[in-house]
Design brief:
The protein is α/β, with parallel strands linked by helices. It contains 14 helices and twelve strands. The chain has helices spanning 17-26, 42-48, 63-70, 82-103, 117-120, 130-144, 195-207, 209-212, 226-237, 248-255, 280-292, 301-307, 315-321, 333-341, and strands at residues 5-10, 30-36, 53-57, 75-78, 108-113, 151-156, 172-173, 179-183, 190-192, 216-218, 222-224, 241-245. Strand 2, helix 2 and strand 3 (53-57) form a beta-alpha-beta unit. It is globular, with a radius of gyration of 20 Å. NADP nicotinamide-adenine-dinucleotide phosphate is lined by residues 11-17, 35-38, 41, 44, 59-61, 79, 81-84, 114, 131, 157, 159-160, 163, 167, 332-334.
Length: 353
């Protein structure tokens, strides 16, 4: 049997990276090396139990670890974590990861991108969202280096559909059995992506370098507003869904992980930060404005259908497949880790009282 090509996955224990590790490993065409700070974590152990997956201990924000991680692999799928690094460190290590991959002779680099909100919004600072813009800038830098020597592709995702279970989009169950989404969303349609399909798109990028080199693959499952989400929830579950739009100022105290949190809140309130570190409020005010004002560009659904004919095509289909019931479930490793460490200060995103 031919030797399998090896792919380094950075962020492979995370919500987005786990389906990528599974899709690559289960294809039978790749071996996967996953960089993690904690090989003993339950998520790391879950993927290490798969055939063709190995773990390598190290941090995204350590250049020696990055050299070791990229050494000898054919390809790389890289999702740095803006919510632990913050915008400035994500920029630095995002650029360095690309440079180090080139130095180590990697042949195909896939960057888990987010659209460059500030640029698409014509540089209006109201839309400066640090966790989007850091990735978007790095994505532009990567494609600007061309395809000689190392091929590169961007996989651009919007918010995960799974955020309806964990994170910003979880509704609050009311005593009368209805589910309320109370947030600053406006009429803008948000291109939600089901994480189940991210693995398939990533595998396609590695399998088809002649088409994927230089490509920014912008994926979506369904473009929906919050009025749509509440309506579809009612249609699928029979439970009443309500969307109540409130100002960001009314919403923020209910939603921020803890009062005065920074965007890299997972490091705790006392981590060293400087004036470049956005507060959770500034970052997510820009985020809600960006999606609510409908600034994002349409995705090429024809291309997505061709790449993945069996893709989940609607929010309703996703809700049925995952038996969505409006109640929280664990999706993000960051939130899971935080809640284990600080069980007395668990993040509830407005679910608690
Ligand atoms: N939430 C959304 O809707 C959404 C949508 C698109 C993009 N994103 C982006 O996705 C990124 C977060 O990934 P995720 O959603 O998969 O979150 P997650 O479930 O919380 O996972 C975070 C991942 O980052 C890894 N990580 C964090 N700091 C690290 C470090 N210093 N060194 C090595 N690994 C580190 C973790 O690995 P270990 O703990 O094992 O080391 C884990 O694999 C963010 O940049 C976010 O902007 C999120």
């Amino acid at each position: 049997m031919a030797e399998l090509k090896e792919i380094l996955v950075i962020g492979g224990t995370g919500a987005q990276g786990m389906p990528v590790v599974k899709a690559l490993a289960e294809s039978g065409r790749y071996r996967v090396r996953v960089l993690t700070r904690s090989p003993e974590s339950s998520r790391a152990q879950e993927i290490a139990a798969l055939q063709n997956v190995t773990l390598i201990q190290g941090a995204q924000d350590n250049q020696q670890d990055l050299h070791r991680a990229f050494q000898g692999v054919y390809g790389a799928w890289v999702n740095t974590d803006g919510f632990t690094l913050g915008e400035k460190n994500e920029l630095y290590y995002g650029f360095r990861a690309y440079e180090i991959a080139r130095a180590e002779g990697v042949q195909h680099y896939v960057w888990a991108n987010i659209e460059y909100a500030l640029k698409i919004a014509d540089w209006n600072e109201k839309y400066h969202c640090g966790h989007m813009d850091a990735k978007g800038r790095i994505g532009e830098f990567i494609l600007a280096q061309g395809q000689e020597g190392m091929k590169s592709s961007l996989l651009s995702t919007g918010p995960y559909m799974e955020m309806l279970m964990d994170g910003m989009f979880v509704p609050k169950e009311q005593p009368d059995g209805s589910f309320w989404w109370v947030n600053p969303a406006k009429a803008g349609k948000i291109p939600l992506i089901s994480l189940q399909d991210v693995g398939v798109y990533s595998l396609w990028l590695f399998d088809n370098p002649s088409e994927s080199a230089g490509l920014n693959l912008e994926v979506t499952t369904d473009d929906v507003s919050f009025t749509d989400i509440a309506r579809i929830f009612t249609e699928v579950t029979g439970k009443q869904g309500v969307h109540k739009s409130v100002s960001f100022e009314q919403y923020a105290p209910l939603a921020e992980p803890y009062p005065g949190a920074f965007v890299n809140w997972g490091l705790g309130p006392n981590a060293v930060r400087d004036e470049s570190t956005m507060t959770w409020r500034d970052n997510f005010s820009a985020w809600w404005h960006y999606w609510g004002d409908g600034i994002t560009r349409p995705r090429d659904l024809g291309l997505l259908d061709r790449i993945h004919p069996g893709r989940i095509k609607s929010l309703a289909e996703w809700m049925r497949r995952v038996s969505y019931d409006g109640r929280p479930r664990s999706v993000l490793k960051l939130v899971e880790d935080w809640n284990k460490k600080y069980s007395d200060k668990a993040v509830t995103y407005g679910q608690g009282d």
